[in-house]
Amino acid sequence: MLEISHRGTMNRMASKFLKRSSLALGLLLLLGSFAQALPAANDACDRACLNGLLDQYLAAMVAHDPSRLPLAKSVRYTEDGSTLSMHEALWATAAGLGTYKLYFDEPEAGEAGAYVVVQENGAPVILMVRLKVIHRQITEIETLVARRQTTSIINTDNLTEPRPVFLEDVPEADRPSREEMVSLVGKYFDGIEQGNGDIVPFAPDCIRIENGIQTCPGSPSSPLGALSCGAQLSTKIFTYIQSVSPRRFPVVDRQLGLVLAIVRFNHPGTQQTIEVAGHGKMSMGRYSQWPNSTAIAELFKIKDRKIKEITAVIVLQAYKASMGWE
């Protein structure tokens, strides 16, 4: 009887041990599943990490060697709206980098961008590149390249270093929300469509530079050159731009007060001249002469909730050609 009782006790103890072991094992497996589902802390890519990836990208591009980059298997690369392999276009022709390099980031969204002057087949071009980064891997690469052959205005001699205002931090207490910054920039494109500079929150001394050329205030030799950015819009001289669509705002850098807008200006070619008060009938410019569009990456500096400066990369396209990321 004692032997039977002892065996029963041992069996009960063994059963409890196995149950506890199974429970512990189950908890370990569950915790492991959660750990795999959540990104590791070191997967986060802060501003320094994003800027480092931009450095890597440019170096790899000049070396024509995408294997130097942490690319996701599903990475997508476009140049001027066309989906390409990373052995084509500027990746095959880039020969070096200029001194101009302007970086901006939105770490919360894993987005980074840059404006850079690049040497291509002996000629300087202006590159805008946007990277999407997930778990420290590059999943999206979007580029626009302004070349003399694909735009009516370009002057890389003016692009030796970024203008200081683009490098200034905005005090944390004075930073608008992402939504407000996008709204401020959206009014600029509304103002172009409507020919109304009064609805745009321009700073009184706002400057706009397009492909390295200052266009507002513009050249003193131009009839409208002395006008401010807002006053230029109100002449309706730009209403040959029938619509600014699509519009995207992929990078909002609240620390630097910068918004990257990637948009398409659509020019149907149905109006070439307009009456401007004090100047009579004026030509609306080269792009008004036939149906075409321009793909534009436009970077806005927001200061004191006003548009302080604008710099843009502009590429001519067929009318309403795909931007590649609609």
Describe this protein's structure.
With 326 residues, this protein is an alpha+beta fold. The chain has two domains: 42-158, Nuclear Transport Factor 2, Chain: A (Roll), CATH 3.10.450.50; 169-317, Nuclear Transport Factor 2, Chain: A. The protein is 24% helix and 38% strand. It is built from five helices and 14 strands. Strands 2-1-6-5-4-3 form a six-stranded mixed β-sheet. A six-stranded mixed β-sheet has the order 8-7-14-13-10-9. The chain has a two-stranded antiparallel sheet with strand order 11-12. The N and C termini lie far apart (82 Å).
- Report the mean per-residue pLDDT as an integer: 90
Radius of gyration: 27 Å
Return the CATH architecture of the largest domain: Roll
Number of strands: 14
Question: Helicity, in percent?
Answer: 10-25%
Tell me the layout of helices and strands:
Elements: H1 2-37, H2 47-62, E1 71-79, E2 82-84, H3 90-93, E3 94-106, E4 111-120, E5 123-134, E6 137-146, H4 178-194, E7 202-210, E8 213-216, H5 229-234, E9 243-253, E10 258-267, E11 273-276, E12 280-283, E13 292-303, E14 306-317
Parallel strand pairs: 1-6, 7-14
Antiparallel strand pairs: 1-2, 3-4, 4-5, 5-6, 7-8, 9-10, 10-13, 11-12, 13-14
Question: Main traits of this protein?
Answer:
single chain, 326 residues, alpha+beta, Nuclear Transport Factor 2, Chain: A, six-stranded mixed beta sheet, 5 helices, disordered N terminus
